[in-house]
Amino acid sequence: MATLVSHPDEVRVISKRFGQGATEIERYLQLDGYKAVQKALGMGADAIVNEVKNSGLRGRGGAGFSTGMKWSFVPKQSAKPKYVLCNGDESEPGTCKDRLIFEHDPHAVIEGVMIAALAVGSHIGYIYIRGEYRYLSVIMQKAIKDAYAKGFLGKNIFSSGYDLDIHWHGGAGAYEVGEESALMESLEGKRGIPRIRPPFPAVVGLWGGPTVINNAETLAAVPHIILGGADWYAKLGTPKNGGTRLFCLSGNLNKPGVYELPMGYNLKKMIYEVGGGISNGRGLKAVVPGGSSTPVLLPEEIDVAMDFDSVAKAGSMLGSGGVVVLDDTTCIVKFALRTMKFYRHESCGWCIPCREGTDWLEKTLTRFHAGAGLKKDIDNIYYLAENMLGKTFCPLGDAAAMPTMAFVKKFREEFEDHLDGKPCPFERTGAAERQPVLA
Amino acid sequence: MIVDTQNFMKFSDEFEARFTEMLTHYPTRRSALVPTLLYAQDEVGALTDEVIAELAQRLDLTELEVRNVISYYSMLTTKPRGKYNVQVCTNIACMLRGGEELLDHCKKKLGIGHKGTTEDGLFSLEEVECIGACSWAPAAQVNYDFHENLTNAKMDELLDEYKKKGTQ
Question: Which member of A296, A353, B10, B68 has the lowest number of beta carbons within 10 Å of its beta carbon?
Answer without folding.
Answer: B10
